[in-house]
Write a structure and sequence with these properties.
Length: about 375
C-alpha cells in the first residue's frame, strides 16, 4: 500500500459547517464562520488582530503593502525558504538580501543578520522552519536597534512557541498558512496577524480592496468607499467553515502529530548514532509543533538514492527548497555572496511522510526501509 507524503485529515465537522454556511445564506467573506475563527484564534494565542486570508502568500503581500515597501528598499530573509516569503516583497520592488541558515535548525542564522543591514533596510522576515522558532529575542533586538520591522513567516508555525510566547505574536506582523500540507488546513487558506497597533486599521482596509467596508459593517462610518490601496485577500465562508472545524480540533491534531514525530525520532536515533543521518534539533527556547519530520543526509547522492529506495517501497519522501539565491528568477539579482548552509540543506534535507492519519505501523515500515537502505 502506498504511503503518500501528505494526506488532508477530515476532523469530522467540516461538511456540517459548510452546509451551515449555505443555510445561513452567505458564502462571501467575513460572515459568522470567519468571525468565529478570528475569535477562537485571538483568544487562544493573544494576537492583537487576526484576519483570515486566502493564503499565507496573500498575508505576506498584505504585510509588504502595510510596511510601505518601495522600490529599492531592502528586506532581509533566509534563502532556504519557500518562494512566497520573499516574492511578496519583490512584488513591491524590494531587493532581497539573503541571510544564510543555521545548520542545526534550518532557520535564519540570527548572528548573520546585523552585517547585512544598510540604510535601505526596511524589514527582516524570519521563517520558523518546520514550526520551530527562530531566535526571536536576538532578531527583535537587532530590529529595534536599527529601527526595522519584523514579519514572521509563521506559515508552518501554528500552535508553536518561543519562550512561552506563541509564534506569530512576536514580530510587528505575521503570516500563517492553512494550505493542505500544514497542520491545520482549509485547502488553501492563510491568516494575517497584526501585533503592532499602528497597522490594525489599515490591515482591514488593505484586505477589503482598499475600502473601509469592515468599519462600515461595525457601524463606525455611515458609508464606505475607496480610502487606500488594497486587494481582495479575504476567504469565503466555505473556507472559514472548514478552518473552524479544524481549529476546534487543534489539540487533538497536535497531540497525534507529536506522537508520530516522537516515534520517527526514536526509531531513527540508532541511524543517527551510526552517523548515517542527522535528526532535527529543537532549541531550548522552542517547542515542536510536529509540522514536519525531516532527516539530513551526508550528500546529494545519498539523498537521491534514499528517495528512490523508498519510492520502490511505495513510500513518498520529498525534498524541498532550492536556495532562492540560486533560483532561476533571483540568481541574477542576488549580490553574489555564498550561502553555504542554505546550499547544503538544499542538497541533503529529506522530508518523510507526515500527516494525521499516518499509522504507527506505517512509520515502523518507513524507518525499517530507511535502515535497510543504509545497512545493505
Ligand atoms: C506553505 C508556506 C508558505 C505559503 O503558504 P500558502 O498558504 O500556500 O500561500 C509560505 N512560507 C512558508 C515557509 C511555507 O511553508
Amino acid at each position: 500500500m502506498t504511503i503518500p507524503f501528505n494526506k488532508p485529515h477530515l476532523t469530522g465537522k467540516e461538511i456540517d459547517y459548510i452546509r451551515e454556511a449555505f443555510l445561513a445564506g452567505k458564502l462571501s467573506g467575513d460572515g459568522e464562520f470567519t468571525k468565529r475563527c478570528h475569535k477562537l484564534i485571538t483568544e487562544k494565542y493573544g494576537f492583537r488582530k487576526a484576519l483570515l486570508t486566502t493564503s499565507c502568500t496573500d498575508a505576506l503581500e498584505a504585510c509588504a503593502i502595510l510596511l510601505n515597501i518601495q522600490p529599492g528598499d531592502e528586506v532581509i530573509a533566509p534563502s532556504y525558504t519557500f518562494v512566497s516569503t520573499v516574492n511578496a516583497f519583490v512584488l513591491r520592488g524590494a531587493k532581497i538580501v539573503f541571510a544564510d541558515s543555521d545548520s542545526l535548525t534550518g532557520n535564519i542564522d540570527a548572528t548573520k543578520i546585523e552585517a547585512l543591514i544598510t540604510s535601505r533596510t526596511k524589514a527582516i522576515v524570519p521563517v520558523h522552519y518546520a514550526g520551530v522558532a527562530c531566535d526571536m529575542d536576538a532578531i527583535m533586538q537587532i530590529a529595534e536597534k536599527h529601527n526595522l520591522f519584523v514579519v514572521e513567516d509563521a506559515a508552518q508555525a501554528i500552535d508553536s512557541y518561543y519562550k512561552g510566547k506563541p509564534l506569530g505574536s512576536i514580530g510587528h506582523l505575521a503570516a500563517f498558512s492553512f494550505h493542505d500540507t500544514k497542520n491545520i488546513i482549509s485547502g488553501e487558506g492563510g491568516m494575517l496577524v497584526v501585533n503592532d497597533e499602528r497597522f490594525v486599521k489599515r490591515a482591514e482596509i488593505i484586505r477589503e480592496k482598499g475600502t473601509n467596508r469592515s468599519a462600515f459593517f461595525r457601524g463606525e462610518v455611515d458609508k464606505y468607499g475607496w480610502v487606500d490601496v488594497g486587494s481582495s485577500f479575504l476567504p469565503s465562508e466555505i473556507i472559514a467553515a472548514v478552518l473552524l472545524a479544524q481549529l476546534e480540533q487543534t489539540e487533538k491534531i497536535q497531540n497525534k502529530r507529536k506522537q508520530l514525530w516522537e516515534q520517527y525520532f526514536e526509531l531513527l536515533k540508532p541511524l543517527e548514532q551510526k552517523g548515517f543521518l542527522k535528526l532535527p534539533h529543537i532549541p531550548e527556547y522552542a517547542t515542536n509543533n510536529a509540522h514536519m519530520f525531516y532527516i539530513v543526509l551526508s550528500d546529494l547522492n545519498t539523498r537521491s538514492g534514499l528517495i528512490a529506495h523508498l519510492k520502490s517501497k511505495d513510500i513518498h519522501a520529498v525534498f524541498h527548497y532550492i536556495s532562492l539565491h540560486k533560483s532561476v528568477y533571483y540568481e541574477k539579482l542576488h549580490d553574489g555572496r555564498d550561502l553555504p548552509v542554505a546550499d547544503e540543506l538544499t542538497n541533503t534535507l529529506l522530508r518523510l511522510p507526515m500527516y494525521y492519519d499516518l499509522t504507527k505501523e506505517q512509520i515502523e515500515l518507513i524507518c525499517k526501509s530507511i535502515s535497510e537502505f543504509f545497512e545493505k
